[in-house]
Description:
The chain is α+β, with helices and mostly antiparallel strands. It has a domain at about 1-60. It is built from five helices and eleven strands. It has a seven-stranded mixed β-sheet, with helices on both faces.
Amino acid sequence: MNLLKEFSLNDKCSYLDDKEQTTHYKVIDNCSSQYTQELIERGYRRFGKMYFRPVCEGCQECQSIKIDINNYTFSKSEKRVLKKAKNIKTYIQSPTLTQIHLTLFDKYHKHMQEKKSWDYQDVTSDHYYNSFVSGHQDYGYEVLYYDEEKLIAVDLIDILEDGISSIYFYYDPDYSKYSLGKLSMLLQIKFALQAKKDWIYLGYYVEECSSLNYKADYKPYLTLDGRPSIDARYIWN
């Protein structure tokens, strides 16, 4: 493991329009599964070789959240989502980069620009590779969703010692009837139960952000107390 660099950046908040944000970054080459686990437990997220978390002074709107798998109960509506998607096939493998990935990623973000006013930028192979393929080591995976021979969604995850860390999910908006975002969460929960994991780390919950506040629907969950340093004790409440 090699810490390539460490730094903080100030920018416009990614989640709340009226706020600024300070984000702390660690760029780590060949990061071990154990150290990734320690970072995730302390509120970091991983994109490629980059680990980051918000450290905004005087603001606690971004709460690191994880689902308690062992006490989760599927609701009737969730069971209906699973049943409706029974013909969708999923495959898990190491992250890859193809033109089909890029086309689907681009289509999803154009859809989210219209639906939720997300900022849109043209996707490049370098950006995708650095964000979702690089740095996966032996614990990063992609789950591919297929309708017959057509790729309709990609779920990027880390499988760690005690749980699954959700990295990113994108899908074909033409298949919205399957509630693919919700389906991906339910399948992660089922997989975690089968793999005898305790948690699903969902990144950040922000109550006033429509792209993130859905995470509170998956109960029971815990949130991280503050932003503990890497050598400090962490507490999930």
